[in-house]
Design brief:
By secondary structure, this protein is mainly alpha-helical. About 45% of the residues lie in helices and about 5% in strands. The protein contains 5 helices and 2 strands, in the order H-H-H-H-H-E-E. Strands 1-2 form a two-stranded antiparallel sheet. The longest helix has 16 residues. The N and C termini lie far apart (about 75 Å). The relative contact order is 0.13. The mean pLDDT is about 80.
Length: about 120
């Protein structure tokens, strides 16, 4: 009896192996720091102000504000409030604008949850 490759057991997968492991980029939700940073940058550019001007008014460093705007740093509520004030906004204004951006970015892919449509009210007897 000769030993050759045909004597080895073959493994046949029951399901095709997925090409990519993990969620696709479109399926990932945006990070809050990215959205808040986008809001701060958009508001600053709308006012035609420089990073230096806003950072000095907020009493934070220019590099730190730049990193917050780019979503590289997770700013504290105190830093966000200071940056918002330097732009003539309140913290609630920045968070409200961030909320609108989040809804706009995720609404097409998230119209329902495991519990039902988003925003639906369920009553129990």
């Amino acid at each position: 009896m000769s030993s050759h490759a045909s004597n080895r057991a073959r493994v046949i997968p029951l399901r095709p192996v997925p090409v990519t492991a993990g969620p696709t980029p479109a399926a990932r939700e945006p990070l809050l720091r990215d959205v808040v940073g986008d809001v701060l940058r958009r508001e600053r550019l709308t006012q035609e102000r420089t990073l230096r001007d806003v950072a000095e008014a907020a009493r934070i460093s220019v590099p730190y504000l730049s990193e917050v705007e780019r979503g590289r740093k997770e700013a504290s509520s105190e830093v966000l409030a200071a940056a918002a004030r330097s732009l003539g906004l309140g913290l609630a204004d920045v968070l409200s604008l961030a909320h609108e951006d989040l809804v706009r970015r995720t609404a097409p892919s998230r119209t329902t949850t495991a519990r039902g449509p988003l925003g639906a009210v369920r009553l129990a007897a």
